[in-house]
Amino acid sequence: MMGSRFGRMFRNFNIENRAFREIGKEKPLAAPRHPAPENTSEIAQEVTQEIHKKNDPLLSLLKTVYVDSKDPASQSLAPQTEKEEEGERRQLKFSLPGDPYGICDITDVPKGKLSIVEALNALNSHKRAPQTWTLEKVAQEYSLDLKDTRGLLTFFVPFEVKILPPKGGATQQIKDT
What we know:
The protein is mainly alpha-helical. The protein has eight helices and two strands. The protein has helices at about 1-10, 15-25, 40-50, 55-65, 80-85, 115-130, 135-140, 145-155; strands at about 90, 110. It has a two-stranded antiparallel ribbon. Helix 7 (about 135-140) crosses helix 8 (about 145-155). About 5% of the residues are buried. The mean pLDDT is about 80.
């Protein structure tokens, strides 16, 4: 309450004198306007007539133009049949138990692709037994390209939890109370 009164006092202090001083200041002048041509309506009429006038030489040249185009036969735009889709898909090796995330209705994936569960399973298998789950075996098991499999096994690592012991000699345990 006191702060608003204090602020209002400073805001309203000598307000009339400040207002008269602002009103009495000389106003800035606007820049002079460029003189407009006297016959603007005549020029506008000439321009509209020129726009709507037919240009016979250009019209004759336009009539000689012949355009013939054909759409390229693109297979990527053509709808795929069910037989083609069946040949390019494979059954899932692993899926989530139950229906926790609403994605268990997926039964197959395209060849060369992995589901998240399959990718984690492949990475974990390779990490636990790299002699058994070699690059070639993972690629063959999941119908992947060798280059993609090499990138997958090189650059992606499943989560690894490391618990570091405290540096001090005495360890403290938290007990339930």
